[in-house]
Model the fold of this input.
Amino acid sequence: MRWNTLLKTTSLRTALVCLLVAPLPLLVAGPAAAAGPVSLTSGFYSNPDSGPAVWVRNNPSDSRAARIQSAIASQPIARWFANESAGIGPAVSGYVGAADSHDKLPVLVAYNIPGRDACGGESSGGAGSVAAYRTWISTFAAAVGTHPAVVVIEPDALSDFSCLTSTQISDRLAMLAYASQMFQQKAPNTWAYLDAGHTNWVDPATMASRLRSAGVADIRGFSLNVSNFYTTPSSETYGNSINSALGGGSHFAVDTSRNGNGSNGEWCNPAGRKLGVTPRVGGAEDLLLWVKTPGNSDGQCGIAPTVPAGQFSPDLAVRLIDGT
Done:
């Protein structure tokens, strides 16, 4: 259903002079958010090579550039990783290393599970086999290593079951459980979150069961609302219900990148959506993050019928700034 632009990291080291950061403690942090990678860093890392940042650099005379720079490109936005041209190990290690060199906390998204977006189809793809995925995610976790980081694991993977066979579901749960184990074992300073969809997709008890099978007990917790539009309070209610069904003890993060006006029930480039609060340490949740890149298309649909999934559109970006 969704796809964020997968950017090369080879130019990061030369572009670090353009680094922009945002302070973490913009909200009063709850007790759960007082340790881990947050305490090891001095703010979120803002990717100088995000889609919006690259567009602004390449279009300085465009009348929209200053607004996009101020409202979006300067903000900390997650970097999505899939089949990287330079290899997943160098891509991840370069990114977390660049963030760590500035004492900043990067947010990464692992998005390469076989049968990715099987039911939505806009962002189909992923590793070619279970074995290939196990190698890929193990390399990913090892590349993060001891660097402080936040990792969102496979958006939609635990919600997008309706068109999968029972064998595919079993394989997927096993792959996600393996991913959880890898981050537990190889990335000790990472808060990893299995994606748990959004408030209007899978009921809390069912999602809790899937999370349990996918190894949520081995990692920090789960993520909500990735690339969607539901309000933070509704996500908090859903997250608390999932945690209750899990028996407590888990934690969650919420994607606020496009939830300023809430959801109108559509997921693919709907009109009238708006930027949400910028990334910060949360209260009811661990973190409020911009996981989806604002301005990146969800697919050739909605108000961007000609913009492929993952491509940055300045028109979509300005609509999110204005809430139109």
Summary: The CA atoms of residues 161 and 169 lie 7 Å apart. The beta strands are 20-22, 44-46, 79-81, 107-110, 149-153, 190-195, 221-224, 251-255, 280-281, 287-289.
